[in-house]
Amino acid sequence: MLFGKEDFKKIQQAKILILGVGGVGSYALDCLWRSGVSNITILDYDTYDITNQNRQIGSEAVGELKTQTLQQLYPTVTTIHQQMDMAWVERFDFEPYDVVIDAADTTKVKIELAKKVYKKLIMSTGSAKRFDASQIQVASIWKTSGDALARKIRNELKKAKFDRNFTVVFSPEEDKCKEKGSCVAVTGAFGLTVCSEAIKKILKGQ
Q1: How many C-beta atoms surround the C-beta of residue 91 within 10 A?
Q2: Is 165 a domain residue?
């Protein structure tokens, strides 16, 4: 066994919240579930589109709700079919969760989430327009570099006089296209890296 009995028990008893189950979040979900975490809550409001099929687990179910499809694939998960907006972040109770994974897209909401749950947070930043998974890094938000989304988040947090640390998975790789485009080698690896960081956090009891 990779983990000792006590560590594996910690993993099994952990409560994880995943915000966004697209190209990054769905792979984080799969990794955590296969690692023994059964108490996972996922939030998303979208349905699968044919354009998701290059990078999202469950996306063969075109037109179906992502939360509904993933609950069928991972029967122990709890689903929240809800758009993660500012009002939701403000009113939602994050206290029951050991780790909060932010795999969502909206910058303003990501910033507000960081302010509220930074101690529990693992944030994924830009994973699109890249294909070199070897450039993926993990750092404090203040140590990130080469990623436009992370830079914007840093700047906005500075303006708000917020100086606390939280974990970010990012890549400094330059964009490889101007239009929309994603490679599952990178988005999936982001999700797996997020999973690894979540397990570390669980085992450290942080």
Answers
A1: 7
A2: no
